[in-house]
Amino acid sequence: MSGRITRKRARVDSSVDTTGSSEDVQVQEEGVVSVPNNVTQQPSQDEEFWFEDGTVVLVTGDVQFKVYKGILAEHSPVFKDMFSLPQPSQSAERTVQPNTPFGVPVVHLTDSPEDLRHILRLQMPRRGTRPFSSIHPSFHVISACVRLGHKYQMDHLVEEGMTYLQGFYSGQFKTFTDGHVYSPPNFDDEHSIGVVNLLRLVDRRTMLPAAIIACCWLDGTSLVNGFEREDGSRETLTPEDLALCIQAKGDLTRASVVTGLRICAPATSKLCKTKDTCWQALQTFFNTLSTRAHRISSVDPMTTYVGKARTLRICSDCLRCFIARDDSERWSVWKTLPLLVGVEVEGWDAVSEE
Length: 354
Known about the structure:
Layout: E1 12-13, E2 44-50, E3 56-60, E4 63-67, H1 69-75, H2 77-83, E5 106-109, H3 113-123, H4 139-151, H5 155-166, H6 173-179, H7 191-202, H8 208-216, H9 220-225, E6 227-228, E7 234-235, H10 239-263, H11 275-287, H12 293-296, H13 306-309, H14 316-335, H15 337-341, H16 348-352
Helix pairs in contact: 1-2, 3-4, 4-5, 4-7, 7-8, 8-10, 10-14
């Protein structure tokens, strides 16, 4: 959610404890770092991020990453704070003891190896790595950027992720209706659930209505069950947002029906010189709306009917009148969109017109 996130200092060791301990260490629910004392097997070295001359080892799950703390500290105040903690003294010969196999500080993180790997690809890419090989990254890349960027105060990663998402979950009427796609190309439909969670995390309310519409396209099972992350865990909506989406499905559908009927009403232009012919064409189209129930009763009340109107045998004046009515009705419902989806968006009117 958008509440304040408590950040805690990391524990920085000079070694990885592989012998276990009788003293349990509690893992804070929102803490940045945990130190597992019950490790009985040495984690494996990551194949992609293990620099022999690295200056810190990050351990997450069962994977170790040997990287450069200077680069991490430059981009993250949280990591900089971690590495500023006093280190245990070492002998003049800097002898590596049997239980200190790396000779560099070791930091245990609670993130998944998959998420951390996405971030490291952006901060210190290896030769041959193409972190931006696609102009449309996967949801997992965007999610890692936003969640870990927020957690470790890497603000540039959060902004990059939000900028990309804003191109698809826009709070601006023209941007949303011109593109009229409900998710980025490399996202699965269920990933809209993760988008809602990301927007809640960083409190980007102007993008929430579009993301909730995307969630409302999901069937009930997908909406409830969510999707599987790369690490095997499942991501779902919060109970509050799940209830909000269930309510919004009905409200959006009703708004779509009303808007569609108003747009397609058989009204001719005052300038029309062939009123009988145009009215008959418009009336016939209106009468066939029942055969397009899937469209008129969708969860997106911003659906346009201009494409179909262009195929009707009506004069240019009546077509312009239809297009104007289409724009006007959709704009009217857009102004009430936050209310329809159950979220408060301060300054929605101003954002919509930008």
